[in-house]
Structures are given as structure tokens and as C-alpha cells.
Amino acid sequence: EIVLTQSPDFQSVTPKEKVTITCRASQSIGSSLHWYQQKPDQSPKLLIKYASQSFSGVPSRFSGSGSGTDFTLTINSLEAEDAATYYCHQSSSYSLTFGGGTKVEIK
Amino acid sequence: QLQLQESGPGLVKPSETLSLTCTVSGGSISSSSYYWGWIRQPPGKGLEWIGSIYYSGSTYYNPSLKSRVTISVDTSKNQFSLKLSSVTAADTAVYYCASPSTYGDDAFDIWGQGTMVTVSS
Question: What's the gap in Å between the CA of A36 and the closest CA on chain B?
């Protein structure tokens, strides 16, 4: 099983600040890494697919990078509406896995 | 546009079988997506993949749940379903069905609203 380790677990950020969330895979997964945003009592929403491809309708302040085992989700100029928990997800193996999540709080 | 909707009992007794259905609308389950998945989220915790069923009929399950999980498709009803046997309180969670909307894609861009299932006597 491919383990995804996200860091940090929690981040408290002021508006307009830049946020960086990392996701490390226990083995190389190429670019088969996707990022989701989940707000309380809502279903997850896809932000980035295949490490760096922005999903349709996602604000341009969200971007993704990385390949192999190390990946990053960046939120440029954080807005209040970005308060949420962010998850990475790998599809390199038929046995899918999710990272543990990173909660982003607005100061 | 593809939409998914989970349905099933909100309360299941310990040791019994949890059964949920995901109804696909806006497209045919036979051709709209490469694969269909079930994911769950215990209260206050993260997302856990349960299993997936592919267009070919192949199924893949979370190793930690494999002995208790069955996922199947009913093309006549445009639905896919989840059965989880011998449930315990640890199976209490919001259960989501999800799918990529683009055939061949792997990322889940379509999610159901989720259904809360509580395991309790």
C-alpha cells in the first residue's frame, strides 16, 4: 500500500498569505497525485489533478507541483473562503490512498 | 452533467451488513466513467478509500477492509452498490460515492453528497 504523508497537519494563516502544503508518497507515483478541498459538512472538491493540472473552475491562486514522491499544493494570497481541510490522493496503484489531511485556518 | 446520489439505511446494528447504493444520473454507468469508487470519513477524521469498480467489472478493495467489502454494478438501474459485512462502531462514518467524469481520468471530480451511517444497537 502506498502511504501518503501530508504536512503540516494544521496551519493558521492570515489572509493574503501564501500557503504551502506538502504530500510525500512512500514510493514513486509519477504524477498520479490529486488534491481536494473539503469544507465542513461538504463533500470534497477536486482542485488539482495529476500533480499540476488545475481542475476547471478552480481559482488560479491554487497550484500544484511535484512528481515521483514529493508534491506541493500552493495557495497564493489566501482568501477567507479557503478555510478548509486539504487532502492529497494517489491513483498510481489500483489500491488508492488518501493523505491524512491538512486543516487550514484563517487567523 | 454526471451526478451521484447515495442512499441506504442511516443506522445499522453491530455484526450486520451495511448496504448502500449510489445512483448515477446524467449519464450511463456503462460508459460515462472509467471507474466508480466508495470513500468514507469517520466523524472528525480523514478520508478513507473503501474500494473501486472498473468499467471492466474488476474490483479493488482497501486491504484493511477487503474481507468484508463487496462492490457491484447494476447497469439496468444505473447504480453501483457497497456491502460491508460484520460492521462495528468503527464503521460509523459518512460514506461517499465518487467518480471521474472524464473517461480515462483517475481523479474524483464528481462526488455524492454523502450519507451518514451509524453502527449502533
Answer: 9
Q: What are phi and psi of B108, to 5 degrees?
A: -85, 100
Q: Burial, B11: exposed, middle or buried (Cβ in 10 Å; 0-12, 13-18, 19+)?
A: exposed
- Give CA angle at B11 (B9, B14), nearest 5°: 120
State pLDDT tens for residues A24-66.
999 999 999 999 999 999 999 999 999 999 999 999 999 999 9
Q: Do B107 and A44 touch (CB under 8 A)?
A: no
B17, B1 Cβ separation under 8 angstroms: no
Residue of B46, B63, B114 with shortest CB distance to A1: B63
Mean pLDDT of B80-104: 96
CB contact under 8 A, A44 and B108: yes
C-alpha cell at B40: 468514507
> Per the structure block, which three cell numbers stand in for A107?
487567523
